[in-house]
Records
---
Amino acid sequence: MTTPVLNVSNLRKSFGEFTAVDDVSFNIMPGEILGLLGPNGAGKTTTMHMLLGLITPTSGSIRMFGMELATHREQILQQVNFSSTYISMPLALTVEENLWVVARLYGLPDIRRRVDDIVKKLEMEEFRQKITRKLSSGQMTRLTLAKAFLTEPKILFLDEPTASLDPDIAHKIRALLKEERRSSGLSILYTSHNMREMEEMSDRIIFLQRGKIVAEGTAQEIVTRFGQADLEDVFLKIARDSRL
Amino acid sequence: MKLHRIGALVARHLYLYRRSLPRIMEIFYWPFLDLVIWGFITLYLAKYQPQIPGFVTFFLGALILWDMLFRSQQGITISFLEELWARNLMNLFASPLTPGEFLSATIAMSIFKVTCVSIVMGVCAWLFYDYNVLVMGLWLLPFVLNLVVTGWSIGVFTTSLIMRFGQEAEVLAWSMVFLFQPISCVFYPLDVLPTWLKAVAWVNPAAHVFEGMRAVLSGSGSPVTNLIWACGLNGVMLLAMIAWFYKTFAHCKVQGSLVRVGE
Ligand SMILES: Nc1ncnc2c1ncn2[C@@H]1O[C@H](COP(=O)(O)OP(=O)(O)OP(=O)(O)O)[C@@H](O)[C@H]1O
Ligand SMILES: [Mg+2]
């Protein structure tokens, strides 16, 4: 049996009285794409931020590559990266300068080749010299994806990565993610509010609601278990039940 | 501590300076303007107050030294604000970068700014007022070093406050040093302060530096005692502020506010 690259057990985060993430446990295997699904405020982003060491958990443990995040932060974060539609990069630098800074931050060798590669892969040639301030929101998303790919992570955390992309680019990004997973065994934790994308991308889905895992399995398994036609209907059922 | 990560942050800030006029002005134009205004005031006062000996020397020397402290603090705090404004803190702290490396990079930027500003002010004072900062001789070096370190302490302190309290605290980046100015005795001796304020000023390392500066300029003694006090207080203050920065950083990660500052 292969060992998981990421192991989360009994993770909990409270902000004062309010519990945003409640006793969450899961694994991610090498090369696996795990979808994190749930209504607004379910705790998806909070979970990801804990995995990135940006938020300190109230209790529970996070292990990656067999190491505890709390004690091996540098070694772990060197091998992971993240992207989200909602993050930004320094606006006064050009796209290429931003990528160079990231490459240096992670101490990458052979920076010029890597930057060229990633720019080509994400079709960023026509704006690579542009000041980041002048990018459209979709171009910005591509830049933040490029910074995540640039460091060749073993685990990628993607928080709604395709939310602002046009269908053509979104399709290409999904193809790229699947290709990276196939060729280099990249593991991905993914959130999205696009149910079709979730079904297409995820090997396995975890359904979060008010910080708790309420369902887990392949998209097909979850759909069958809830006796619905598709994932969207499952989502609507769970989300509406919880709002009653 | 990994040098390449500190280097990456420094490079990121230097990229900013490469094409930003306001940021270049901050280094070259404002210190120059400061010097021009205060220089004229000094000349004017000197004309009517000939009984205070070496007036120009005191005033311009004090002004230049004070600016070192100010720019040193700005180098730290503004570097943090740049990341805040760019919403880049999340990218940085989800990378292997440590808070200590982050602080080191801001300190490197502070040294860069202070070096540029001192050259500008030193040269201008010499060209326009025929004033040579080097009249302080070799003492100038320990004076400047101490003031720069005081600037770091105030800078790290201000940065922690902004990190903790967010946008509302941003204005402290410019106003905090002026809270320290009256008790730094930049333009007047410690003696003129009321007794209770004297006690407060006494724990401020900058006050000892300026006392020392006056001693050297008036030729009334050696500033060694002042410098020993300044060094000791600086060491304690800087360590305390760095410890407080780490504490604030950890607190923000618990509150979940590190990813939200600036929003
Ligand atoms: N720093 C914080 N302080 C207090 N409450 C917080 C903080 N961060 C998040 N929360 C709360 O925790 C809950 C989970 O938020 P989170 O951002 O993880 O949700 P999400 O699943 O990502 O939702 P969305 O789909 O809207 O992105 C929300 O109710 C939010 O208000
Ligand atoms: Mg979210």
---
Amino acid sequence: MAEVRFLNVVKRFSTKSGDVLAVDQVNLEVADGEFLVLLGPSGCGKTTTLRMVAGLETATSGDIFIGSRRVNDLAPGERDIAFVFQFYALYPHLSVRDNIAFPLRAQRISREEVDKRVQDVAQRLKIEHILKRRPNRLPSGEQQRVALGRAMVRQPQVFLMDEPLTNLDASLRADMRVELKHLQHELGTTMLYVTHDQTEAMSMSHRIAVMNLGVLQQVGTPLEIYNHPQTLFVALFIGSPPMNMMTCTLSEGRHLQAKVGNLRLTLSSTHRLLSQEREQNVAFGVRSEDVHIQSADRASDVMGTVLVREPLGDETIYQVDVGGESALLVKALPREVFQPGERVGLTIDPERIHLFEAATGKSLLAAAEKAG
Amino acid sequence: MLRRILFWLALALVIFYFAFPLYWIVISSFKTIADVTRATPAMLPFVDFQQTLANYSSILLGTNIESETGVQAAASLGEFRERLLNSVIISGISTALAVGMGTLAAYAFSRFRIPGEGDLLFFILSTRMLPPVVVLIPIFLFFSNLGLRDSYLGLIILYTSANVPFVVWMMKGFFDEIPLEYEEAAMVDGYSRIEAVWKIVIPEAIPAMAATAVFSAIVAWNEFVLSNLLNRNYASTVPPYLNSIVGVGQVEWGRLAAAAVLFVIPIIVFTFLVRNHLLRGVTFGAVRR
Ligand SMILES: Nc1ncnc2c1ncn2[C@@H]1O[C@H](COP(=O)(O)OP(=O)(O)O)[C@@H](O)[C@H]1O
Ligand SMILES: [Mg+2]
């Protein structure tokens, strides 16, 4: 087992149409035994980052360490890592057994030991019954397991996985999430896992590293990332439905106040603003579950009209027009029923709001309350 | 119903169109001189004519053929067999070389960034645009000076270089379809690139290699002009021999047909041996991601 460290890692691709800065000054530490998910939209540089750890891409600058070894100049095979590809890359001309044994055959390992380890892995992944088959005819769920088996069998220092669950259908994916998390916990092997799917990231990881346009946005536990997004990008990327985001102005009275459209909010005393200048142009965010909908006759922060009601069973999502630039999304319990067209009152939990500098996208709130 | 009938009718026509000449050659090879030159052709063995193995034994063993018009001269003993062996050697070696070298070149074109890749690929293809006949005289003089006439090596070089471009283009298309992840997975798992290519890529590429090998072998096997010009005395191949049968006086259709049948058998056998790979090879692009 080992930790993985990135020190100012940059990757630039030169293409015919110019340079692409795929990974920009990444600093990151994955602790020994940690399950770290690299999360970001497609094209943000996740795969490139992972491939640099594997040695399939060379970093343009910066250092990558696995354990105490600087691996920049090591061949992929010398790094003692296992890589699970998005499309599994199972060798069609080899049986499942030979696919799994393949990494062991590169090492000097006795035949009995190879057989034993393949058997162990197959048992653990419940694929003993398909060991003799060829992989390309197997259902994708089993192909997935074979790919995992091939990664596990050599007992590497680090697992690197690039969107391994994308090719599975939804229910299988949910099962595999649980199983993968459990496997990683049992094996205790450091895991660097890439995905664009926030559910995967939230449910499996110890920590999430959110990336956008090659830049690491924030690293933290799932709840830290969810509750205290440090950038506008993270705030908008994490959470479903997406966070309500509006422009607002801040003004100082006795308390610091935020003015959003018709809405005037007094910031709670727990909010310490990072920036000393009072921003005129600020993005104001609040998650749909932190806005409460109630009948119009109750005392509310702002009044609005219900536009759309989406009952999802366990909760209901309302779109409420409050006269601002866009409608607010509000999550409510299914038993509170309001009809489209109905006037309603909304209250916003002032503890749970988010403010971002519009120009830089940086959070204006100190991440003091780490507890989540 | 009518559509079915039309379908089978069309199919029958197509099969007839392609298969009849073969049938014609095969039955002719079993005919006596009298039967093969009959004005109303005999179509059915056992019924229309009495089949004979005389043509084959003449070709292969050099026996004489008796006929009402007198004894025909036999082919000089063993010449056909010798030429057949030469054809096998020259086609076999040149095909192996072309497929081997072309495959490696195609792999490099497919996987590495090569400066001027497009131009190089076009250059390789362009060598096929000139018909060999055009460069016949330069090649003749060239080979004379180098002592490559009447040698195996001369034709092997020519046929190999004629086939390499074709192999490069076919195999590059195929390698482009093989996901890079295969080699990468092998390399992460502790193999060098060479090992990855040998253990993973080549086994994957065998169908395509088989398909290109068949096409290359056919080209080398059938080549007439260069062989006829360069290898007249030693290491001569079969195609000029077939021509020589036509050439001497009266055309000996029976022996010509027998030689032609014997000539196509090896290529049919070869195609048959690799048939399982062929379909996958020629329909490449079918590698699943
Ligand atoms: N081999 C390459 N050559 C040129 N550009 C590349 C190459 N690989 C990736 N890129 C570019 O780098 C950026 C990041 O790609 P990638 O790491 O694959 O993103 P992700 O995995 O997050 O979707 C993209 O803009 C992509 O187009
Ligand atoms: Mg990717």
